[in-house]
Amino acid sequence: MRYSSQLALLNIVFMTVFVFAWFAGLWQVLSGQSFIESPVLFSSLCMVVLLSTFTVLFGSQWWVKRNLHSRVIDHYADGAYSVVIRILHEQASSLNLPKPVLHIYESDSLNAFIVGGVWRHQDLYMSRALVMQLSPDEIEAVIAHELAHIYHQDIVINEVFFGMGMACLYLLQQSFNRLLAYSGTREKYAEIAKKLAEALTYGCLLLPLWLMMLFYRRRSEYRADALASQLVGSQQFIWLLHRLKGVCRDSFFNLDEKQLLRHYFMTHPPLNHRITALEARQQA
Predict the structure, then answer these.
(1) Which of 158, 111, 147 is nearest to 16 (CA)?
(2) C-alpha dihedral over 6, 9, 15, 19, to 10 degrees?
(3) Alpha-carbon gap, residue 25 to 42, rounded angstroms
(4) Per-residue pLDDT reduced to its tens digit, 219-234
(5) How many CB atoms are located within 10 Å of the residue 177 CB?
(6) Is residue 113 situated within a structural domain?
(7) In whole angstroms, what is the distance from residue 231 CA to residue 237 CA?
(8) What would the DSSP string read from start to end of 95-133?
(9) What is the extent of the structural domain holding 108?
(10) Which end of the chain has fewer CB atoms at under 10 Å, N or C?
């Protein structure tokens, strides 16, 4: 269970090629033409994807730091923060991961997340309420889950999906701009209909890509849970999920069975489903 930057890079490349191949294949099915026939369009789409991905990867750290007004916790922290620093460094070392910089921000909600994704530039953000209200064992489980996302490079892959989504929106915007450029004369109706069909094609590209991204993000949560449960023990991690279920009563994490369809449009699976998945792994 040692982190390998080479394997992480292969994982990113594989997912990137997969998303591009899916996008190109669906494009050809819906529009009847391949990207090879439109090198200018293909080049512009690649630029949109790359710029969107790198903007989010490098700009998100600046944006979060600026808006949350967080405080960086260093090695010499005392009290509860010293425990968090110790746990973070121990778990990062056990996975051979670069140690993220710990940021604490003021919030009443119990939350933790990773920002960044480039190998040695990750930031771990934790709300002050989470550190104050959870026990050291529960904080250990939270950190294990967040480090699992770094281990699998989920942040980078999510931004690849984001970049492809921006490419779809770019195509959709360009198509509607061309549509609006035509006058409403009768002679132009056929051309307007053609451009409207083109816009619908781009919309058909965007919706399944968005659903695919949500599916991957939910899958990555289950995978992070599995790795975290190996680090801290299944019972300890399941207890954390039960604790969060009790605390976050009004959260979308606690969707009941009557709202089953809604969870397919969420980035995180309901806590009930995550607990069930871990208990099934425990019994296997």
Answers:
(1) 158
(2) -140
(3) 13
(4) 889 999 999 999 999 9
(5) 11
(6) yes
(7) 9
(8) TTPPPPEEEEE--SS--EEEE--STT--EEEEEHHHHHH
(9) 70-151
(10) C
How far is 245 from 153, CA to CA, in rounded Å? 26
What pTM does this model have? 0.76
CB contact set of 5 (below 8 Å; sequence gap of 6+):
119
What 8-state DSSP symbol labels residue 249?
T
Q: Domain for residue 96, yes or no? A: yes
Measured CA to CA, the distance from residue 178 to residue 170 in angstroms comes to 12
Q: Residue 226 domain-assigned?
A: no
In-domain check, residue 4: no
- CATH number of the domain within which 96 lies: 3.30.2010.10
Distance CA 246, CA 241 (A): 9
Indicate the number of domains in the chain: 1
